[in-house]
Amino acid sequence: QVQLVESGGGLVQAGGSLRLSCTASDTFSLYFMGWFRQAPGKEREFVGAIRWGPGNTYLEDSVKGRFTISKYDENTMYLQINTLKPEDTAVYYCAAAPIWVISVIDSADYPYWGQGTQLALSS
């Protein structure tokens, strides 16, 4: 069982950029790694994911061009967010799923979750 910890959130001005990190107690080599977010009063939604071994990435259409998922090392991945918008305000979670998962965008397929990091946009 892998343990996950997110970091990098905070209060950020709209139009700015930041990088969120997800650090694991184990290597990511045997998992799909996903990023999700949950805005106040809204359902948790898929942001993006990476199949760790080959490095294939998947991004929600609405964030393509602004969000990037990347590896740092075998225990850390990043979510780079550029040109921040007010609608990006949410708690951001990283999650891990077995490599045989069928749908990488379904949160129900991810058994391992971090506690989340808050991202808030200021005007």
Describe this structure in words.
- With 123 residues, the protein is mainly beta.
- It is 0% helix and 52% strand.
- It has no helices and 11 strands.
- It has strands at 4-7, 10-13, 18-24, 31-38, 45-51, 56-59, 67-73, 76-81, 90-98, 112-113, 117-122.
- Strands 2, 4, 5, 6, 9, 10 and 11 form a 7-stranded mixed beta sheet that branches.
- A hairpin with a 4-residue loop joins strand 5 and strand 6 (56-59).
- The protein is globular and about 40 Å long.
- The model has no long low-confidence stretch (mean pLDDT 93).
* Binned strand content: over 45%
Based on Cα principal axes, name the global outline: globular
Please tally the helical runs, counting DSSP H or I stretches of 4 or more residues: 0
Q: Element order, helices and strands?
A: EEEEEEEEEEE
Q: What keyword list fits this structure?
A:
123 residues, mainly beta, seven-stranded mixed sheet, four-stranded antiparallel sheet, 11 strands, 0% helix
